[in-house]
Amino acid sequence: MIESARLINYSGKWYMVAWDLSCNDFRTFLISRIVRATLTKEPFAGGWGEERLKKHLSSGFGIFKSEDVTNAVIRFYHQVANIVSRQNWHSQQTTLNGSDEYGEYFEIKLPVGNFTELLGKVLRYGAKARIVLPTKLKKAWEKEIREMEKMIE
To answer: Of 64, 62, 61, 60, which is closest to residue 26 (Cα–Cα)?
Structure first.
């Protein structure tokens, strides 16, 4: 059983953030995938508190959340660096301009708990973006690039 806490329109899709009474934690549901909902006579407990909800929602990049939050570092090169430098990916992000063996870059450091969405976003920029940290995310990015390369005939 869940208790709806917040409706969010994220990237053109509606999500419900809800308190899951079975595990005493927040879960996020894509509303278009909900098959059945039942109204109960149970009173709404609402024991999670607004501050806890705000902390959950701001905990890391993207719609998918996790208690295990780490910082990700991504570098953007060439014209993509200029585009991304005007974007805000997370309220707690920090940025840096620099240069390395690949050229001048714009770097974003931001908290992330679930790598799925961030990985997809970085892959969209192709060879003009590079994941630096954390190692687990970088390895997932490298693996995906290798898998993509196998698709070339």
So the answer is: 64
Q: Taken in order 139, 58, 129, 150, is the CA torsion positive or negative?
A: positive
113 neighbors 69 (Cβ within 8 angstroms):
yes
Contacts 24+ apart (CB under 8 A), 98-101: 100/75
Phi/psi of residue 103, each to 5°?
Answer: 120, -170
User: Strands 2-10 and 103-112, how do they pair?
Assistant: unpaired
Domain boundaries along the sequence of the chain: 2-57, 70-150
Contacts of 74 (CB under 8 A, 6+ apart): 107, 108, 118, 122, 129, 130, 131, 132
Residue 45 contacts residue 3 (beta carbons within 8 Å): yes
Q: Give the pair of three-digit tokens for residue 29.
A: 């549901």
Backbone dihedral angles phi then psi of residue 74, each to the nearest 5 degrees: -125, 135
- The 10s digit of each residue's pLDDT in 116-140 is 999 999 999 999 999 999 999 999 9
d(CA 115, CA 80): 21
CATH number of 70-150: 3.30.70
